[in-house]
Specification:
70% of the residues lie in helices and 8% in strands. By secondary structure, the chain is mainly α. The chain folds into 2 domains: 52 residues; 84 residues, Winged helix-like DNA-binding domain superfamily/Winged helix DNA-binding domain (Arc Repressor Mutant, subunit A), CATH 1.10.10.10. The chain has a two-stranded antiparallel ribbon. Strand 1 and strand 2 form a beta hairpin. The longest helix is centred in the first third of the chain and has 49 residues. It is elongated and about 95 Å long.
Length: 143
Amino acid sequence: MTKDLTDEVKKLNKRIEELEKIISTVIEPLKGVRDITQNYLKIAGIIMDKGGLTPDAILPELKDPISQDIVRVLLDRNEQNISQITELVRTRRGTASRRIIREKINELIELDIIQKHMKGSIHVYSLTDKVIKKWSQMLGFKI
């Protein structure tokens, strides 16, 4: 009888292990859904608090509206030259001076928000990896 009891306990342990594997297989995708839901709620909260996903949400130190518009432009369209950035800011604001845009871009470069590099024979500007990382983290992506 003790041998029968031992065999029964072994069978039950094996069944319990199988059930644990099945449960972990079911639970794992649910963890992903939970993470996505948390990220969605985080984004919804930012939209409600800030009125949208705006540069000041990731760069609260950026108070200047023209600089914020430049960052918005580069969030929408990466790797733009001065003329393109000026035109896109002008579209947003109704007016924009190429000289002022250049000055603001140079300030943003000094703040390590924007970087300048060559694309072919043209200087283009893009957001730095630091800013992209902050933006991604705010949206809930793990980098």
